[in-house]
Amino acid sequence: MDPAQRIAQFENMANADPGNEMAHFSLAGAYMQAGRYADAAASYTRCTEINPQMSKAWQLAAESYRKAGDIDTAIGTARKGYEVAASKGDLMPKNALATLLKDLGVPLPRVEPAASAPTASPGGSFACHVSGKSGTQLPRPPFRGPVGRWIYENVSSETWNQWIGQGTKVINELRLDLSRDQDAETYDRHMREFLGIDDDLLTKIRTGT
Questions:
Q1: Residue 4 in 3-state DSSP?
Q2: Is the pLDDT higher at 41 or at 131?
């Protein structure tokens, strides 16, 4: 599906169900791929209005505002997103927002440690690349291929179980049929975004570099 088709698909879905955060999130991603950064920023911001705890949407909204040239809004969004990510213990969005704020010459907000973030299973000693917390390793890769292997080596079972819950929401809210290639790719893209696997990292995983 080309970018224009993806945009049209998710615009229709977001317009039909304005409270569907996943539709807005997918629409924002389609706008980003098309270089429509201001539109992407608006859609990611809509996600944060629907779900203020969606730290990944805060991160991508801030990055989109920056690419659109709206630096003041990028800073305000990044500061708020950093607070949300820190309070939840979402390591990768927090680190990405910290890097963005430092690049813009802005000090990091003072935040309290994440008190209510999910904790690892007792005795867990596996270091999760995504959450930054100790947990337990998955018993095996969740699926075949280099991405499945990377998840096995870097993502704790606790974080993976969080994705399973989020993935169910993605399937239900976007009405995905995983037997269709385009729906399966939409699901995979949300999974990679949740786990912090951006395009550069995905290339490295697939090529083994």
A1: helix
A2: 41
